[in-house]
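> @MW can you paste both from yesterday?
MW: sure, first one:
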Amino acid sequence: MIYLDNAATTYPKPQAVYKMWSRAMSAYGANPGRSGHAFSQSTAEAVYQSRAKCAEFFGAEPENTIFTLNCTHALNFAVKGIARNGCHFVTSDMEHNAAIRPVYAAARDCGGSFDMFEAVEDEEQTVYNAERAIRPNTAALVCTAASNVMGLRTPIKELAALCRRKRICFIVDAAQGAGTLPITLKDGINIICAAGHKGLYGPMGTGLMITDGSFELKTIIEGGTGSASESISQPDFTPDRFESGTINTAGAIALGEGVDFVRRLTPQRILSHELALCERFCAGASTIRGVSLYNRITPQNAHLYAPVVSFNINGMSSTEGAALLSEGGFYMRGGLHCAPLAHKKIGTINGGTIRFSPSAFSTNRDVDMLLRMLERIAAKQ
């Protein structure tokens, strides 16, 4: 098996993550923050240690680092939390449904609206396009760090500066950037939403919403928090305000090990390794007659991309191509990748693409074997 579907979830995970998750299921089996006994307190301490690791990684404070079930939950908390009556949102034209659907729903429900700007390889033009979309009633700019379809990055630092000038909230969907791209609150981002199970190498069922505390967010879920239990009102302090009910305790604790793994390797080394594999794949695939690349990562343009490449095998749908590759032991996703805006942008809305996305564990040999398989399949078409 050669797994190259890491934009969906990374696999394998580091051994330390498996070990900590297993240990947490037994050693930290009490409900954190819900009881005064020692077992609960030790579990709460383990959760806090992981929270602190995640906070430091993104330049945040532990109390402003909220555990969620995934990046989608975090984006819903952020987008719907910032929405006010009649407000306006700005977002890019390549957003995942995890971002554009909450934006659409929040604008609809508050009697507001949203506009999309075109993201392009020219970063100055992208920022200019975003600025033109901002209105006096704009509440937030919601933007992916990188497209999960073609890997195109957005100029996060420059967009953060734009939002500061306009005094609007900047919410970043870091599902395809956390763990590889330089994403930190120190660059002026107000809210980072991240998937724990992708580039942070944590378990599935983990995510993060990390805020700088600059903007007050309404809650969309209320309930037991283990704090302020005497009141029927939701706590007004983080992280409790957004962590109603029991969190995925073992997952949250194991996520800290994933963050440790990324810190040891460094995001820069991981990104360089994965981009080199994408360059290798693009160079080889571009020579195969019958294979179409929708983004081509080269040494010259790699700084504009996250390590994701979309392609198709001519004469078959993306799902058919992915199924054939799966039969040969290569696991990649075919289809629309929950990102119809991006597929409209590159002209593949009717059939989708096959997505190549390596990880820190992928190798040159994996890429070379995939290219040989593609040659054999394409030759039969």
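MW: second:
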Amino acid sequence: MCDLYAEAPVLHAAGVHLVSSDEKTGIQALERLAATLPMKPGLVERREFEYIRHGTQCLTANFEIATGRVIAPTIGDTRTEADFVAHVAQTVAEDPQGTWIFVLDHLNTHQSESLVRWVAQQCAIRDDLGRKGENGILANMAARAAFLQDTAHRIRFVYTPKHTSWLNQVEIWFSILVRRLLKRGSFTSNAELRQRILDFIEFFNRAKAKPFKWTYAGRPLTV
């Protein structure tokens, strides 16, 4: 994975899309009961601590390693197997014939039967995929993950080792989203929350996007 990060500029120049993807679940649409009072001489900013809950949303984002842009985000009420396949399909639609590499964690929806079938269709793979829970590529999560990681595929996935979510660069971008928008925000509805997130992504891509300076080279960490 660290080798991929180091190769990102070369891959990008060759037309290969290397993106770090994940879901940020449970984003709360909290409406403050009173407006925030701005700071002034002798007083810090005062933010209302009581709020109204308007529900939650799930953001699935792709952080493009070579450019630092967030591309083809999806925001919805759920995080299901079908939701993730739809997100990947929307992302690949940005360059339908291009080569795509997705960096992901080991969540079961990232190694699902639906995703295997979709990749097989997009890559024109005619092999018998077997039956989920019984045999073949679909037999279990390990077999599905092996298929999805196959470097011969035009659309493939690279999975972070267990307990290393910090290796996924989109997690760094999520922390930016929290600090810049969510932590201090007040949202009157899920619809407003969705639009504010999309507006922030548009602003970020236009004014702030740049690749992260990744220095970790993959050496084993000691405790």
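> thanks! Residues 190-207 form the longest helix (18 residues).
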